[in-house]
Amino acid sequence: MLTASQALGMIETLDIAVFKVETHSTLGDRASFLRVQNLVRSILGRYTYLEVGSHVGGSLFPHLIDPACEAALSFDPRPAALPDERAELIHYPQNSTARMIAVLSDELPPSAMTKLTTFDSDVSAVSPAAAGPKATLAFIDGVHTNEACFSDFVGVLRFMKADCVVCFHDANLIADAIINAERFLDHLGIAHETVFLPDTVAVIGLGAHASRVRDELQPHALDRKAYLERSQRELWAHIAKVHSPKFRAEIDKLRSENSRLAEKVTRMQAESRLDAKISGMARRAFASLGRKADRIKRRFAR
Question: Rounded to two decimals, what is the model's pTM?
Answer without folding.
Answer: 0.82
